[in-house]
Amino acid sequence: MSASAVFVLDLKGKVLICRNYKGDVDMAEIDHFLPLLMTQEEEGLTCPIMSHGNVHFLWIKHTNLYLVATTNKNSNASLVYAFLYKVVEVFTEYFTELEEESIQDNFVVVYELLDELMDFGFPQTTDSKILQEYITQEGTKLEVAKTKVPTTVTNAVSWRSEGIKYKKNEVFIDVIESINLLVNANGSVMSSDIVGTVKLKTMLSGMPELRLGLNDRALFALTGRDKGKTVTMEDVKFHQCVRLSRFESDRTISFIPPDGESELMSYRINTHVKPLIWIESVIEKFSHSRVEIMVKAKGQFKKQSVANNVEVRVPVPSDADSPKFKTSTGHAKYVPEKNLAVWTIKSFPGGKEFLMRASFGLPSVENDEMEGKPPITVNFEIPYFTVSGIQVRYMKIIEKSGYQALPWVRYITQSGGRTAMLFRYSLYSKKRPIIYS
Amino acid sequence: MTDSKYFTTNKKGEIFELKAELNNEKKEKRKEAVKKVIAAMTVGKDVSSLFPDVVNCMQTDNLELKKLVYLYLMNYAKSQPDMAIMAVNSFVKDCEDPNPLIRALAVRTMGCIRVDKITEYLCEPLRKCLKDEDPYVRKTAAVCVAKLHDINAQMVEDQGFLDSLRDLIADSNPMVVANAVAALSEISESHPNSNLLDLNPQNINKLLTALNECTEWGQIFILDCLSNYNPKDEREAQSICERVTPRLSHANSAVVLSAVKVLMKFLELLPKESDYYNTLLKKLSPPLVTLLSGEPEVQYVALRNINLIVQKRPEILKQEIKVFFVKYNDPIYVKLEKLDIMIRLASQANIAQVLAELKEYATEVDVDFVRKAVRAIGRCAIKVEQSAERCVSTLLDLIQTKVNYVVQEAIVVIRDIFRKYPNKYESIIATLCENLDSLDEPDARAAMIWIVGEYAERIDNADELLESFLEGFHDESTQVQLTLLTAIVKLFLKKPSETQEETHTYTHTNISPSFDSDNPDLRDRGYIYWRLLSTDPVTAKEVVLSEKPLISEETDLIEPTLLDELICHIGSLASVYHKPPNAFVEGSHGIHRKHLPIQHGSIDTGESPVSAGPAAPIEQAQSVIPSQGDLLGDLLNLDLGPPVNVPQQSSMQMGAVDLLGGGLDSLVTVCMFIFLYLLSLFPQIWLPAVKAKGLEISGTFSRRQGQMYMDMTFTNKALQHMTDFAIQFNKNSFGVIPTTPLPIHTPLMPSQSIEVSLPLNTIGPVMKMDPLNNLQVAVKNNIDVFYFSGLIPLNIFFVEDGKMERQVFLATWKDIPNENELQYQIKECHLNADTVSGKLQNDNIYTIAKRNVEGQDMLYQSLKLTNGIWILAELRIQPGNPNYTVKHPPNLNSPNSELRSHLLFLSEV
Question: Which of A63, B241, B747, B759 has the most Cβ atoms closer than 10 angstroms to its Cβ?
Answer without folding.
Answer: B241
